[in-house]
Each structure stands twice: as structure tokens, then as C-alpha cells.
């Protein structure tokens, strides 16, 4: 017989106020997916305002009933009571969290929110590892494990990836604030990684990384080469080598230190020599991709030693070995150098992801584990035939970024597919936030995909949801993407921040309460440190300020003498072309005029000392631009750049109308810098041609833009002119 809810339980309801009945102390709210809840207030209900790291508690209990305006986003935590009638289950709120004073205010959308958060994160880790207010940073005293309060544990273990994650976060904090303390600590960590945890083989011109080291009481070191973790045990996993570069690359991005670049390049050479699959299928087609593991002795991905009867890492590939290159170091390395070989690698990896990871005839989730020939592996380790929600979201996020650099219709289609499916299967529509691992398939009679271990929510998977939907909204302008970005940000900032001790929680329960058992109690465990939380602060600020809310943003760099060949590249991320520019530059506190605003480069003055460069970036005005270059002999040339979403069609219409009113009988749209074309814009062009009888030519169209134009079949002339 079915289970019945005849007991009380506490839970969280996240959603939007629909109506209020102050006299009876209740209001109605809808969850993200539109389900109504009646919320009863009690004499002991308390309310507070959202607070960032470093903020004091602000009570809002006395003002609560007057703040229950229609449309307000809030979180209500309370007790469900089984009803004695047919009226349904009663819900009495005990705690209300408000996100702003005004109904439409969301504090986490203020321009300084994420900047403040990363400063507090950086201070938490520096104070915990090196002492409060430290200005010198000896990593011999660093420890991987930190307690919930930020205290060091007794272990003397130091893990490469955890130090690298911390170094990334500190360098990113410098990028946002220009505080020398953050730069110095990041640079010291990068040097320590190279000196103590990196094996440099100059004969082979490769570098690779130890898993960890143990510090003995006498100061000597015990190096640990092969991984000691779970499914990776006694092998060299590709993802550990990848994340060793995250910190170095971010420090290189702000300093241009050639010693860091050498080690980065030598590690990449190791990827290509030992992890890259250079074999072919029987028909001669290259298999491509990166193996997930290599033998620690022979560096052979096909070594029998990788199949020990307990686990098998022989001839395997996975999301981490293929996709994690993109956000961990490759995009940042391209931003720092502008070298096309890194853009080529980004495109190659995204091509592999787009070709092999979709599995939508079988499941709403991507396939993540593979054999070497890319056939699915449904029985690997703990994952089996299961999905990690954050990896699905991470694919959508990174495909959208790379599409801004190398537009391809497949990237747009795949990213949008994920964005459309994930809220229905991986998001918690009742409480907000994103789940962890789920079964990729439902059993007969099951409505919901089953959660594998628990219904907890990890901090890094919330990051993927926020960044994915923020950039999707920035590029494609879909109100649903804006909604999911907002709701994801609300959950993260409401429940993942430890506003008492500092830092962020590793995991929270589905209802937002912290989960504090085992390794998930730590704030310095192998996978945590500062990487994901700092990456979120930085890119959420970039996407929300420069793209979605049109706010300027300052970035800081500290190039050494001769760094970057004298040309500093300051693009904040892979954003649509010509959507932002340099507004102002200061070098060592003095205004500096030698920069290319649109190319996002600064020509550095000659110096024998490191310089501090402060760059103010500003939105170009909109995410899409249409500029008439001129009208000659009845031909108007209009340059298009950015992302032409449905909400930007009016910008195109104004330029076309102005050209036709000015005597043009042919309109040439130059689309080389256009990364997205909404079908509504194509329908406008078809209608305009019909009504105003002019010739239309499009040049330089790529990726989704070219595909959308081909699919429109406006006329043969248009089809021939795309490329």
C-alpha cells in the first residue's frame, strides 16, 4: 500500500510571492516550476536579508508583512503538518530569507557582490594557512586539510591539485582587486608547486606532477607519485595533471612569468605525448581524445597494470580527461597569449565533446565514460551508468564560451539542448539548487530519475548552474536562462556561504542546511580549496556586469619586465566579439593611453620592474551591434557583431531601414563577427525583403549563423553568399 505523510517534517520552499493576506498572516507563493504553496506565518517566524561573506545579520521580521509584494523571490523554511481535512498539507514558515529591500532587488546582482565575496574567500584561506594578516607565504607550512572553521589539521600532507586550486583563487582575487598580498601568495604557491611537486624532464621537454608529498618532522619530503584516490588508485589520472596547471596558468595570466610558461608548455607536451590518443579506427579515421589514465611507470594508457581486477583504467576516456582542459587552463592560456594553437585545441576538444557525449536517444543526460574507441562504458567504478549534473551544465557553459571564439552550429545546438533539459531532471524546483549524481535512466514506472547517493548539493555544481545560465542568457537572451541563472545564484548565496566561520560549504542538504560529516566537513580537502568558488566570483561578475547588466569592471595585472612581448591582453573571458572594450588604463597609478580599446590589448611601457596595470572594461553598449559602414552605388554594407537575439532585432531593423531610406537597393550584411542569429531575425529579413524589394547578401557567416541562413532558404543568392 502507498506511503502516507502522517508526520511533520521541516523543509525549504523557494519561489515567488503571488499574493498576500496580511490580516491572516499568510501568503501564496509559486515554486520555480509553478506549483502553488500557501505559507502560514506564526508568532515565532523570523525574517532576514541575504548577506554576503563579511556582512552582518540584518533582521527583517518587523517589516516582513509589508514586503510580501507580488513577484518577490524568497526562500521560506518551515514545518509541514498533515492536514485533518481535505485542504492539503499545511506549511508554517519559521524562517524567511529575503534577497533585497525592494521586490525586484536581488542583492547578489549588485555590481560589487562577487568582488566582495572573493576578497573574503581569499582572506579566509590566507589567514587560515599562513596566519592572520600574513605578508610572507612559506608553503612548507601549508596543509591540504582545513577544518570547517579554517583551522589546520595535524596532517602534513600537501596535494598538488589543492595547492593549485588555492593558487588559482588567489591569482583571481588579485585579478579582481589588485591587492599585492593576493599576487604574492599566488606567485609563492606557483613557485612551490614547481620546486617541490613537479618533475621536469628537460631531455624529453616534458613536465609532470606528483600527486602529493608528505612532510616529515625533520623537514624532508616523501613524494607520492601515483594517485591514492578511489577509482584513480595507483594510476596517473589526466585530470590531476590538468588541475596542476590551473593555478600556474592564472598566475601567468597576471604576471607573464616566462618560467611559468615553460612549465605549462612542457606539461601540455606531456599531455600530447602520453595521454593523447593518436591511434585510428580500422578505416583510418583518427580516434582522437585524451586517455583518462596512464601507467605511473611506463606512461602507457594501455598498460595491463591499469587493470588490476578491482578497477580498470586501461584504454579509457572520460569527461575529465577531455573536457576539463577547457576551463582549467586552456581558455585562460589563450586569453593571455592570443596564440591560435590554443584556440585550435579548444575547438578540437569541443568537436570531440559534441560528437561523442550526446546520448539523447537513451537519456536526458550526456554520456561521460568511454572506452578508448569512444564506445560507452556503463560499468566504470562508482559512476556506472550515472550522470553528474555539474558535468552536463559545465558542457553547456564551455561550449557557449568557445562558440564565441570559433562559432559552430553544433556547439549552439548542444548547449541549448542541455540548458533545456537540465531544469527538468537535475534542478530542485522545490528548494532551488542543483543535485549531484543521478541515474541516467528511470526504471519502469518511475517518474523521477533516482538520486544515487543522496540529495545533497555540492558547491561546485551550483557554480556550473550559475555560470551556464548566465552566459547562455548573455549570448542568447532567453528569459528562461535569466530565470535559472537568478534562481541558481539565489540558492548558492543563500545556503553555500558560511557567513560565520568564512569560506563556503562543500555540501548542503537539499533544504540548504550544511552537511558536516567526513571529508565534506573540510574547507581544504583535495577537491576544494579556492578554485570553483573563485572562478564563480570572477566569471559571475564578468557575465553579470559586462554582459547582462551593462556595468563597467576593473581588472588588475602585474606584468614583469618584458612580459607578453610588451603587449598585455586583457579580454576577461571568451565573450561575443565587440561587446566590450577598454575604457581606461592606469599603469602604476598613472593614466596610460597606449591601448587598443576594441582589440583589448595594452602596450606596456618599458620597465625593469614589475608594473601594476589597472584596466577598466566597459560594455560596448549592447550584446549585438549593427553598424552601417557606408552606402555606395546603391549598395549598403552593414557590419554585424556579437549575438543577434530576438530582443535585438530592432537594432538590425533600424540599420536596414536607414540604408534603404538612404537609397540603397542592395544590403550586404557582413557577419564574420556574429556568433548567434535568432530565427526571429531571419524572419524579419524575409519579411523586409518581401515588403521593400531589395537584394540581400550575407558574407562571412559561420557556425549557427550560416546554418540558420541556409535553413531559411530566403533565396539562392543568400544561400550562395554564406560561408
From TrEMBL:
GO molecular function terms noted in the UniProt entry: isomerase activity
Domain of life assignment: Bacteria
Pfam families, per database record: GlcNAc_2-epim, STAS_2
CDD domains hit by this protein: STAS_anti-anti-sigma_factors (cd07043)
Entry keyword Isomerase: yes
GO biological process annotation, one example: carbohydrate metabolic process
InterPro entries in UniProt: 6-hairpin_glycosidase_sf (IPR008928), 6hp_glycosidase-like_sf (IPR012341), AGE/CE (IPR010819), MlaB-like_STAS (IPR058548), STAS_dom (IPR002645), STAS_dom_sf (IPR036513)
All residue ranges annotated as the STAS domain in the record: 634-723
Family: Belongs to the N-acylglucosamine 2-epimerase family.
Database matches in PANTHER family: N-ACYLGLUCOSAMINE-2-EPIMERASE (PTHR15108)
Name of the protein this chain belongs to: Mannose/cellobiose epimerase-like protein (N-acyl-D-glucosamine 2-epimerase family)
Species assigned in the record: Pseudosporangium ferrugineum
Upper taxonomic lineage: Bacteria, Bacillati, Actinomycetota, Actinomycetes, Micromonosporales
